[in-house]
Amino acid sequence: MSVALTSTAVPTSIRSDKVRVMVVDDSVVIRGMISRWIGAEPDMEVVASLRTGLDAVNQLERINPDVAVLDIEMPDLDGISALPQLLAKKRDLVVIMASTLTRRNAEISLKALSLGASDYIPKPESTREATAAETFRHDLIQKIRHLGAKVRRSPVHPTASPPLAPGHDRPRTLAPAAAHTAPAPIARRSFGLLAPKVLLIGSSTGGPQALMSLVAEIGPVIDRVPVLITQHMPPTFTTILAEHLARTSKRPAHEGIDGETIKPGHIYLAPGGRHMRIARHGIDATITLDDGPPVNFCKPAVDPMFTSAIDVWQGSIMSVILTGMGSDGMRGGKDIVAAGGSVIAQDEATSVVWGMPGAAVNAGICAAVLPLNQIAPKLVRVFAGDRS
How many structural domains compose the chain? Predict the structure, then answer.
């Protein structure tokens, strides 16, 4: 169903416009399915289809892929063991971990991100389920395209922030200096005049790493107001992420529960597979979970959380848009700004993918565009009363 090495004999220069993908999975069905999907895309190609992590490590230098789709559970050498060996041989290799939705695999996938994997993707339990397979296909192709694009354009590109892997979310070549500095004068606007009563955060690709870094430094903010987060993630993964956020922030953090009262000092994470909205019940703000269709191809999505918060807090909202593919959060951010609130976006240099924050910047709604390590200090100052 698949060929072990599909194009290693072809010089890289001949296909320099295509993202070179290595598929590593012990299931011949999964390898064949992914290979067919990639082969149907004009901007990418499968250069190897391998059964074990050991095969990938041994053949990496000869294959020279841009992206590796790496299964977690394989014989001889599993994905989490192969990952550091692959990155040791090729520092800029984009690795997308693939696994079924079990708690163990979710834990391993999040651990892989801390070890240098660029992203993860949950595999459908059964490829016979057309809907699940189509979602898997869409997400995988988008991740390969956007994470691999920067590698193809910039063979030598130093990593701006070590914990974050390289990636990009723009189909056209853009000079780094222009991408990072040109939009800033257009994007910047004054912070809202009202004291923020809540912190809302949206993130996607690269988000788990960014969130861990951020919540570790905003203790004074969490103690003052509630923090609500929507991270594009499937069920089980969000459960594990919430536990990690609690440990990192040393504050209560859990998936939002339908109908629960929102309180300062707590972190609420949108559960995988459901949108998290905010509603007013009497004097309390409460969480409402929505099982409606995906928004911006995502469920949970950031926009529903952002827009619903306005009915509760009006202009007293501080929102942050972190690294991620697509434009989710931009429309909700516009509404927040129109209501008198504020938006901070992560800058391009420290984003794994500058899709979501880039869309907000280009829409001209941001009061600040900052490297990841400067967002927490800025938030602490803003919530302490400095909105300059």
Answer: 2
Query: Of these residues, 78, 169, 303, 328, which one is catalytic?
Result: 328
Pairing of strands 368-370, 342-346: parallel
Catalytic-labelled residue, pool 146, 168, 180, 232: 232
* Cβ–Cβ < 8 Å for 12, 64: yes
Domain that holds residue 98: 19-152
Question: Using one digit for the tens of pLDDT, what is the confidence trace for 12-63?
Answer: 444 458 999 999 999 999 999 999 999 999 999 999 999 999 999 999 999 9
User: Is the Cβ–Cβ distance between 346 and 323 less than 8 Å?
Assistant: yes
Residue 122 shares a structural domain with residue 212: no
168 catalytic? Reply is: no
Is 35 noted as a catalytic residue in this protein? no
- What gap in Å lies between CA 288 and CA 275, rounded to an integer? 8
Instruction: Confirm whether 178 is domain-assigned.
Output: no
Question: Catalytic annotation on 284?
Answer: no
